[in-house]
Design a protein that fits this description.
With 159 residues, the chain is an all-alpha fold. The chain folds into 2 domains: 82 residues; 58 residues. 0% of the residues are buried. It is found in: Nucleus.
């Protein structure tokens, strides 16, 4: 027979695992956004770098149009880069779909937010009290140190 405390611990453990998995997915989403940004940056840069020259004005001579082997390879590069970008976007979509659905209705979520805010406020007040106590103690220590230093300076040397 399972006791209620064991059930509470198991439920708490499962909740912690659930939170960990959500955080892991969020980290993966952040990494995927970075990957997409890097791919887009590199794709646009490569397209700009490898674009064939264009005629700016009739005052300038026509740019050379020598299709070389390298030009053929350059033509394949945008296809490869765009497919990598699409693949990264699909992975991002898969991660978004893996996110757990919001638990409960909006009222329950708002209630939970209010509870967390109240808990945060209580912890903030406790931290403020501890900070004030630490500052008071620091001031006392500084006064005692100053007094001890003054006493040492005022002591007469033995003859």
């Amino acid at each position: 027979m399972t006791s209620s405390s064991e059930l509470v611990r198991a439920s708490s453990f499962l909740g912690a695992i659930h939170e960990f998995l959500k955080m892991d997915i969020i980290s993966q989403l952040q990494d995927q956004v970075n990957t997409i940004a890097a791919l887009a940056f590199n794709t646009f840069g490569t397209l700009q770098r490898d674009a064939p020259p264009g005629r700016l004005s009739s005052n300038y001579p026509e740019p050379p149009a020598n299709p070389t082997e390298e030009t053929v390879n350059i033509a394949e590069q945008p296809k490869l880069m765009s497919s990598a970008l699409v693949k990264a976007a699909k992975q991002f979509d898969a991660l978004v779909n893996a996110l757990p659905l919001a638990e409960g209705r909006e009222e329950a979520q708002l209630k939970r937010i209010a509870e967390l805010q109240a808990e945060n406020d209580a912890i903030g007040q406790e931290l403020q009290r501890q900070l004030e106590a630490a500052e008071k103690e620091l001031k006392q220590v500084q006064e005692l140190f100053s007094e001890a230093a003054d006493n040492c300076l005022n002591m007469k040397k033995p003859d």
